[in-house]
Amino acid sequence: MSYGFGIVGAGTIAGFHAEAIGMLPQARLAGVADVDQGRAREFAGKYGCAAEPGLDRLLGRGDVDVVAVCVPSGLH
Q1: Is this prediction's pTM over 0.85?
Q2: β-bridge pairing 3-8 and 50-52
Q3: Cys-Cys crosslink for 4: which of 16, 37, 53, 63, Cβ 3.0 to 4.6 Å?
Q4: Cβ neighbours for 45, distance < 8 A, ≥ 6 positions apart
């Protein structure tokens, strides 16, 4: 079985999560959402996933099974 990951937040810590996801044999990064759409698009281009315009769209994707919350701890 393969798991699709979504990442919320496209800051520094999100890159570490994307790299870790990329090392897992049964995982793939499906998408990212960030309040800064430009940052989400840049992150998506770097890690080969979709940039979603918001959290609802990321969570609504049929290929997202797991979500990594990578926003500042005060925003969890």
Answers
A1: yes
A2: unpaired
A3: 63
A4: none
